[in-house]
Amino acid sequence: MSDPATVGQNAENAATEGRRGGAQGDAPRWPALKYVGFALLLAWHYCLWFISDIFIDTELLDAKVTTAWLVNLGATVISLAVIALLLGRKKHLTGKWHLDLIAAIGMTVCTLALTLSPHLVETPLLAYLISAVLGPFEAILWTLWGEHYARNKGRFSMTHIGTVFGITLLLTMAITLVLPDVFAVAFTSALPIASGYLYWRDARCNEKPFPPLLPESASKGAMKSISIVCTISFLASIACYFLAAIIPWEILPTRDVSFTIGVMVGAVLLLVIAGVCHASRNKIDVFKMFPILLVIIVVAFALELADQTLYFPSFILALGVSSILEITLIMYFGILTSKGYVAPALAFALSAGSIRLGIGIGNGLALGYEGNPAFAAAWTPETCLIFICLLTMVLVPLVRQEYAITSLTTTPQTASELDSICDEVAQEFKLSAREGEILHLLAYGHTADSIAKKLVISPYTVNTHIRHIYEKMQIHKRAELLNYINMRRSDF
Fold first, then answer.
1. CB atoms within 10 A of CB 464
2. What Å distances lie between residue 464 and 455, 461, 468, 476, CA to CA?
3. Predicted structure pTM score
4. What is the per-residue pLDDT across 183-239, written as a single tens digit (0 to 9) for each?
5. Domains along the chain?
6. Vertex 200, ends 11 and 156: CA angle to 5°?
């Protein structure tokens, strides 16, 4: 018969191990839940700035609220840039001075003060000051979450990201929308605390080291692709918010609630994409999202130019695509940090900075047009056409960089995993021994010429084998091959 004390000690040890299991033992039962905390941080932003009546006694589109929002965007972008600059490649915010607690409490206090400021103080300067102070707190918590996912090598699949962010945005915005004003303010203010708590809980249970950064010489090769993605995201954000701001909200059937609807439609689209991925077992390559989103923005501009009756779908598409674009960038840079291409602080500064700087410029441009009605009437259609042309033109360099972008985000990290997947693919599609050999080399990034030299055969023969591989797999280019290989990997 066992000693009761021994039994109790064993039970305690088992419980302790169970608590540690998510980080150091078996994988968590619902791995997608690890993204809830970050999703709550993003949801807070949309609940605060995109839901009517959240500011006590002040309309959502009041000039003071709009200015406060623009100040907050600018302060957040500057704070992210400063943090990334100060940390560089080797330093991190994680574990320093209880920054998670400070940032979460600071955001909550600032949110309460900001929403109540129109009721308490007549001058808008206080709201602008609070918005500026809010920026650094938001930037700190954003960076901490980025570092957390880098340490735990999140894969950022659309199935998990789309589901978690979509549901979180829908639920939080729906709750905030239906609650009475005071309770809506309290709920929105509590979101940063909830995000900070989830970060603290996850961080203390996951003490994994940061992934080693690739040498600067190796990471420089990724900077061209990163620059293209950030530039295009920046331009797309300008276009989206110029379009959303230039459309008179007074003529929209849902008036100022249209802003809320736009973001919620974006959340629904995310859930649809995630559902398709889950049902088809297809992990959509992050790259493929960018051209699709650009095309949708072009369609939104076309609707705005076509007829006034199409303003509403144009408006909704612009806001919805912008929210999806922000989440897509989180996925893109999350993958790059887990692979060691970019330091987490810089990566997530770029993810938020590219979008929010573009949002601020686009909205500011539209406000400039509104301030000069004669100029706006004459130049708004031409400006929309310019945006259509620009967005269409950037599709060309984006497509040209498909292989580079895809290879950064989809190549398996370990040789053993890659070899195993290639063996499975060769067996699945009944590739010959030589075709299987070439498949391995293609997956490792070899060109046709380098394969020819390695195997001591002619480049013509190599290209023939590659064509046969593509025919058997029913694909057309190397980027599709890399994407298929990525599909065979586990998400976590």
1. 12
2. 14, 5, 6, 13
3. 0.77
4. 999 999 999 999 999 999 888 776 677 777 776 666 666 787 888 889 999 999 999
5. 35-410 (1.20.1250.20), 415-487 (1.10.10.10)
6. 100
